[in-house]
């Protein structure tokens, strides 16, 4: 799941987050034993069709998936060099289909809906003293932060290449960390304004108000 929410009123937007996650789980289980490239290509075509149904944002989404495409091509090349090309095609088609379907879920699911779906699933962690709400929030934020950091990395690299003519590589780590920390500060402020990660005022907040 590597993309941000895309507002809309399509059928995928109206389906509940739980049903979409359950559907992705079932499709993943069904695709794992499939070894026919034509079947996997048909699933990928269906995923692209669903992406096209979202409207004009398809081009932007596909461009944002460029780093993932490189990973898929790298896996295909490895299979071609050290295994069989057909096996590489099967793995690449299966991986691309599942990644695209997962992306469709994050494109059509609000963060709040994802959080409400994950929280009851993670309820057993309360038995060991962990907060399922906070764990669900951490997972949801990781899903949302990943595409943002990929986009920031791309922008930093483009800026560095415009100045030096070369890719930034390791030199981008420090500015990328600063961007990530700045974003984390903004998220923390937003959470604090909404009563904390559990939706309740943090301990001591009321006392601070009383003193004020």
UniProtKB/TrEMBL annotation:
Pfam families: CbiQ. This is Energy-coupling factor transporter transmembrane protein EcfT. GO terms for cellular component: plasma membrane. It is a multi-pass membrane protein. Its main location: membrane. The chain crosses the membrane at residues 12-32, 38-56, 68-85. The keyword Disulfide bond does not apply. PANTHER family: PROTEIN ABCI12, CHLOROPLASTIC. Belongs to the CbiQ family. It comes from Stappia indica. The lineage of its organism: Bacteria, Pseudomonadati, Pseudomonadota, Alphaproteobacteria, Hyphomicrobiales. It is found in: Membrane. The keyword NAD does not apply. Keywords: Membrane, Transmembrane, Transmembrane helix. It comes from the Bacteria.
